[in-house]
Amino acid sequence: MKRRFSDEQIIGMIKEYEAGVKAHELCRKYGIIDSTFYKYKARFGGINVSDAKKLQALEGENNRLGRNEYDTRGS
Prior knowledge:
The protein is mainly α. It has one domain (7-74). Helices cover 76% and strands 0% of the residues.
């Protein structure tokens, strides 16, 4: 699934929010709904860009390992 925003962009949104911009204004600026913003905040709040890249790499590895396990069991 293709995402509309990169991890760096999402972290930028959260940093704007932490700097005092209201969530409603950010949602309007980026064209997202409130629930999407708060989902991003729950996932990426408190991390920086390098941490997000590490998280994405680990998630990719977990998905790859899960597919490998499924392939070996499914055959």
